[in-house]
Every structure is written in C-alpha cells, then in structure tokens.
Amino acid sequence: MVRNWQLISTSVIGASHLLKGKPNQDAIRHYQGAGDSLTVMAVADGHGGEKYTHSDFGAKFAVKAAITVLKETFKNQEDFSLSQIKRLSEEDIPKAIVRSWQEKVDEYCQKQPMLNNDNKYRYFGSTLLVTLILPRCIVYWQLGDGDILTVSDNHNVTRPIPPDSRLLGNETTSLCGKKPWLDFRCCFQPITDNQPPRFILLSSDGYSNAYSSNADFQQTVLDIAEFMTTEGQAWVREQLPDWLEEASKQGSGDDISVGIMFRQ
Amino acid sequence: MTTTTKIIEKKRPGGALATRPLHFIWITDCSGSMAGDKIQSLNHAIREAIPAMQTIAQENPYANVLIRAVKFSDAAQWHIEEPTPVAEFKWEDLDADGLTDMGKAMLLVAGQLKMPPMTDRALPPVLVLISDGQPTDDFDEGLAKLMELPWGKKAVRIGIAIGEDADHDVLEKFINNPDLKPLQANNAEQLVRYIRWVSTAVLKSASAPASQAKLETAGNVPIPPLPQVTIANTLDVADVW
Fold first, then answer.
1. Gap from A173 CA to chain B (nearest CA, Å)
2. Which of A31, A126, A215, B114 would give a disulfide with A58, using CB separation of 3.0 to 4.6 Å?
3. How many domains does chain A have?
C-alpha cells in the first residue's frame, strides 16, 4: 500500500552520556494507521538531572501514552467535526496523556516499592513532543524543551509552536510537574484549505543545542527536507544516525532523537 | 567506491556544530578597603584556581567555558573584557583604590547578559560577586537591571564576603536564593577554598547539560555542597581580616 506520509525515527545516545555511563534517556515512537487515517510521531526526553533516576523509563512511558491516547481518541474520528477535534486537542488530550503516563508510572512503581512514594512521578520526569496527522488536520503538542519544525513546498521553515520564553538554560516544563496538562502547548492546523507541510521534524533539544544559532539549526532541518527529495528517504534513514552522533559529539553532548514525517 | 558515492556520503545537513557557551564572570571589589593583603589574596586565590578550573572544563568538552572579569571601585570596568576560553585564561593582578560602585558593576554585567550578545542556547552563566564592603552607588538599581533579564534571573549567582565589614544583605540580594548564603572568608586560606569551590564544583554543576523540571524553584543548576573551611578563631589574629 502506498502511503502519503513516510516516517523515519532515530535516537542516539549522547556523547556525554557515553562518557558518564548513563543510558539514552530519550524515547521515540511512531504509529501509522491503515490508509493514513491516523499518523503519530512522539519524541520524549527524560530529564538528565540526578533526581530523575528513572527518566529513561519516563520517556518511554510518555511516547507510549501519547500514541495510546491518540489511537483511542480518534478511532472513530469521522464522528468529530474539526472544531470538536480542536477542542479535544487543546483541552482533553493533554489531560488524557498525563493520566495515561501516570498510570504507567504507577504500574511500574507497584513492582518497585523503593520508588512508590509521594515523589514517584519526579523520578520519571520527561518532556513530550507529539505530531498527529489526520486526513483533515494536523495537531502539534509540546510539553517542555525540544523542537518541532515544518518545511513547506516553498521551502519555508516554520515552528508551529513558538519557543516557550519561560524556559532557558536547562529548565523545562515536564510530565512530572504539578498540573502538567496546563503546560502543554498545542497548535491545530486544518488542512481543508491549506496545503499541509511537506516535511515535519520533531527533535529532542540535544539536536538544536548542537548548533551555534537557531538559523543554523533551521538550515539543518531545511537541508534534511531537501535530502528527502534529492537523495531519497532510504538514504536519509541510513545517514541520520551518523549525523546525530556527530552533532552530539561535536555539539551538545546530549542524547538526540529525531522523528521525520515526510509527505510524498 | 565511486567518486559520486564518496561525495554523497560526506553530505551533512546544516551549518557548523558548536558546543554550548558557559559564561563565567568574576565581579570583584577593588575599592580602597581591599588594598594590601585582601587584594593580594584575591589575586593569588583566582590564579591558583585556574589549573583546577581548566581540568574541570576538560572533563566536560560539551560546554565552552568563557571567562571574564569586572572590577569596581570608582565606577566599574571590564578587567578582562573578551570572553576568554578557559584553556587560554590568565589572571591579571587587580589593584585596589577608591569607592565601591557595585551597582555600576551590575549594569556592566547586565549589558552582556542581554540577548544578543547572549543566545538562548547558552548554559546558565555563573556570576561571582566578591566584596569586602558596602556599595557607594545605587546598587538596587543596578541589580534590578540585571534581574529583569532572563539570563540575569537564570544565572548561578554566588557571593563571597571578604572580612567582617562586608555587607551580607547586599550579597544576599544578589544571590536571591534562600538555600544559598554568602560565603564568609575571614582569611586568605578561606578565600582560596571558596574561590576554588566556585571554580570547580560550581563550574562542574553549571556545565553539565542535565535538564531539570521547572518545579525546582531554587534555580536550574544544583548548587554543590559547600567546602569545609577553617574556623577563623583558631588562626593567628594577625591573619584574620
């Protein structure tokens, strides 16, 4: 079956994590329903601070929670109007993702009594980036640091969700926050009148932090989008881990995860 | 392997890769009361700490540690103006004379923590304020200008009081962190230990790119345990400031 959207997801362990013997604390997962009815990419970045002892699990739970919730919510999507999808996206889905993530943490902690205390969610602290493509719209969510960029057919690079001015340095909003659903930022794009982006990239902050400026990072995203056309997605899929390892070694030192959604 | 294949394999997206800058700024009191033993001890302590600082920076190659220094007495000026890579950093001795224009030093630092010249991808800057006295200009205005900047608020701010006449209230305002008090150096040995702690333990913590949830209210860089120092009354009285 020919699909409209091609997906690539790659995650590499950070060069500084290799030096310190720490695991890759990022997670990435995607899902594609039959006939492009529902396509999801989710990237999570578990916090690196010492208090977040199980953030690698927290990141895995985050991407699983996002895909589970979106599959469940939109299994009968034809029943929803666009305005209903928008409202669900802005109000109900962040809460449902948080609830699903907390249930996964609860379940894990049941088997680990040492973790089963009032601080348990903090141990699993993680960010979350999600992009959902439905036949009638695209929805983007962002909790915490990281980047979602799109490239149009005209080669324009945009950020559907602007940077969060509250976050600077190593600080991020998180699934382990007090009311984390309130910190989700959402962008709803109907595609009935507008041409959808040609290319969407989701990445943990280790990627953009490897470049000296936002302009350099945007150029990177534009170049990858171009390579998808000029060199083909199989070539990009093969090269991507090397690019990310190089970016970590010579740049941020952090784990890097990249999810690509490319319209044929 | 064909030439074409070689060229394709070398293709890489984007511009030059770069480690994240970490700006470390000494803000030093060079007023008349610092003259003599205090300023000599400060010069010695910072110079002695450089090799350890370089070692810490080498251990974390993913932070680009850049050092500068501000001095304040009658007005304030850059003592070392160019952000200097730690591997090339050399300390130039300070002299002491004049008033204590600490507020102007805050303004000078604030001018460099704006974006630009700072970028949002930097690591939190480390600001170390060292003083033995009380400001003679409008410190509150200078501090307010610094703290209204995002990087001013997010900076790791450490205050070192030299001698018993130092104004702890002013240093506490600068630090603005209930979990961290000014470090009281009553003799040269204590000053060396505090300068070394800032140059190593604090630098190490600030340069590790470990993300933290925003709920950690005291700042986004964990402050390492304070160094143990000798109690002043066990020393010769002549050595105490």
1. 5
2. A126
3. 1
SS3 A248: helix
Q: Residue B9's closest chain A neighbor by CA?
A: A239
- Write out chain A residues lying below 8 Å of B150, CB-based: 165, 168
State the pLDDT confidence band at B2, using cuts at 50, 70 and 90: very low
| Tokens (6 digits) for A104 | 């996964």
Which pLDDT band holds residue A77 (cuts at 50, 70, 90)? confident
| Chain B hits for A235, Cβ within 8 Å | 8
- CB contact set of A32 (below 8 Å; sequence gap of 6+): A3, A5, A7, A38, A39, A40
Beta-bridge mates of residue B27 = B70, B129
The answer to whether B201 touches B180, Cβ cutoff 8 Å, is: no
Structural domains in chain B, sorted by start: 25-167+176-207 (3.40.50.410)
Q: How far apart are the first and last CA of chain A?
A: 13
CATH of the domain at A233: 3.60.40.10
Summarised one tens digit per residue, pLDDT across range B151-202 is 999 999 999 999 999 999 999 999 999 989 999 999 999 999 999 999 999 9
The two beta strands, A199-203 and A147-151, are antiparallel
- Which residues in A lie closer than 8 A to residue B211 (C-beta atoms)? 45, 47-49, 127, 145, 170-172, 205
